[in-house]
From TrEMBL:
It holds the Pfam family DUF577. It comes from Arabis alpina. This is DUF577 domain-containing protein. The keyword Transmembrane helix does not apply. It comes from the Eukaryota.
Length: 511
């Protein structure tokens, strides 16, 4: 049992650290996977009480780490209790146990119904929230490709499902249920619009009608459609209503609020709009305008110091969307994604690579010369979104030159092994002011001293105050604490002319 509780403590500690890194959505995604696994498990009632208590204990201990985590943890805890608790234990706490028996009966009842009957239950009014949650997750399981026992559904049933699902979209269900409903809509839409080549008129009309009044839900459903869509019958009518709303909501918020999901959804919605419009005739200007609106909005947020939370959350969502849409991407979609990645820094020209100094210096360059003004015209950046294929030279793909010999580690570090090859941070005349050489595996104290010896007062102040770096300089500097790869990524960064703006460097290219 000691091992079990150590594992429990480890899981809780990891969740806490992930939340502190502003990655609550990552934890929620993991909980959703766990929930799906429990629903799919054939031997649900075969688990022993200790196994359920372990799952329940995890949910109890992580429930306070965030509002979204709380909601997901409560669902799993409720699900676990339905197969775990003894009626006598409930009586000891003053509970009758009827609610748990009712939950079990609900699962058994849903398992005996057809897909159409279950959707009808979800679409009907007067159902308890807890029961509706069970229903929509049962529907998702029946349609999911991950279900090994998924049965083939007749096209006539799919056609009957379509109006019921559109009706469900207009009902005021919780956010968690709406996300599951989005997956259900995707499965039906894929079967009818991609496999059967039948435009889902009802879904199109829903997106058009709700683009203003329920923008966040409409754009979320649109980005759930992970397949190519008919341009004339679906994409263009939807974009005529949705794109102006996306453009308006892409204006960056003035401050970090408790929930800035509106801007994040506008950003991801803009990305989905572009990948569906990019091959539509006469849409080149619209694609370019919305793409640069996305870049400009990100730039403003970075200037306000809001990149750590808000912008990174949007980038993670876009990354998830790319993974889901990847199988249908053609050359143009790939080119757009690549161009976006290369123009996150609007002053960086997509057809150029900064010249890297080729000097093999053993000493740190201590010059205090100021960086030259960064230049880059919008004309050159536009090439990333033009019709001509972007030509990428081998030089742009080369890894940053590493040079210099390995430095000796301080005494007492034998157990750490031999230091890795030294890394250099290059400041070429066009983008940077200095050249800093720090071992890839060294003590924190050494790294701080190296920076102190190279940067002038204003440059050090910029690092100390920037939200991405200031926590590093306040860390304890005992010799036993080592700088590993994560710190090198943080330090491998360029100062730009913009106040409080930083761009990570990969292969010498700002991203």
């Amino acid at each position: 049992m000691d091992l079990v509780w150590r594992l429990l403590s480890f899981i809780v500690e990891v969740v806490s650290e992930v939340v502190q890194l502003d990655m609550e959505e990552f934890v929620v995604l993991g909980l959703e996977y766990l929930e799906s696994f429990l629903f799919r498990d054939k031997d649900f009632y075969g688990y022993i009480n200790n196994q359920w208590k372990f799952v329940s204990s995890i949910m109890y201990k992580i429930r306070e780490f965030g509002s979204k985590i709380t909601e997901a943890a409560r669902r799993i805890h409720r699900f676990v209790r339905s197969g775990n608790e003894d009626p006598q234990e409930n009586e000891d706490r003053g509970e009758s146990g009827n609610a748990n028996i009712s939950d079990r009966e609900c699962f058994e009842h849903l398992n005996s119904l057809s897909l159409l009957e279950i959707v009808g239950i979800f679409a009907s009014d007067g159902q308890e929230e807890k029961y509706k949650d069970m229903v929509i997750r049962r529907i998702q399981l029946l349609l999911s490709d991950e279900n090994r026992n998924k049965a083939e559904i007749d096209v006539s049933v799919m056609r009957k499902l379509q109006p019921l699902l559109v009706s469900c979209l207009t009902k005021g269900v919780s956010e968690s249920m709406f996300k599951v409903l989005g997956e259900v809509v995707y499965h039906v839409a894929y079967e009818m619009m991609h496999v059967r080549d039948e435009t889902w008129i009802g879904l199109r009309d829903y997106l058009v009608a709700q683009s203003k009044t329920e923008f966040q839900r409409a754009v979320y459903i649109f980005q759930c459609l992970k397949m190519p869509l008919d341009e004339q019958e679906f994409v263009i009518p939807v974009m005529e209503s949705l794109l102006p709303e996306i453009n308006t909501r892409l204006n960056p918020p003035s401050e970090v609020l408790v929930d800035n999901s509106g801007w994040v959804l506008a950003f991801t919605g803009a990305f989905c709009a572009v990948i569906h419009l990019i091959e539509v005739e006469d849409s080149a200007e619209s694609v370019k305008d919305i793409a640069y609106k996305m870049i400009g909005s990100v730039r403003e947020l970075v200037e306000k110091g809001m990149e750590v939370g808000l912008v990174m959350r949007a980038f993670r969502d876009v990354e998830s969307i790319v993974k889901k849409h990847l199988e249908w991407f053609t050359t143009n979609e790939y080119k757009f994604v690549k161009a976006m990645a290369r123009t996150k820094n609007p002053s960086f020209q997509v057809d150029e690579t900064p010249q890297i100094e080729e000097e093999n210096e053993e000493e740190v360059n201590c010059g205090d010369e100021e960086s030259n003004e960064e230049s880059g015209s919008e004309e050159e950046a536009n090439e990333g979104f033009g019709d001509k294929e972007e030509q990428v030279s081998d030089k742009e793909e080369e890894e940053v030159e590493r040079s210099g010999s390995e430095e000796e580690e301080e005494e007492g570090s034998d157990e750490e092994g031999e230091a890795l090859e030294s890394l250099k941070m290059y400041f070429s005349p066009k983008y940077y002011t200095k050249q800093i050489k720090i071992q890839s595996r060294c003590f924190i104290k050494e790294a701080v001293e190296a920076i102190d010896n190279v940067l002038n007062g204003n440059e050090k102040l910029w690092f100390y105050q920037h939200p991405q770096f200031k926590h590093f300089f306040h860390m304890h500097v005992e010799k036993k604490h080592k700088v590993m790869g994560m710190w090198m990524l943080l330090l491998h960064t360029a100062i730009t002319e913009k106040n409080r703006e930083a761009w990570f460097i990969v292969n010498g290219v700002p991203i």
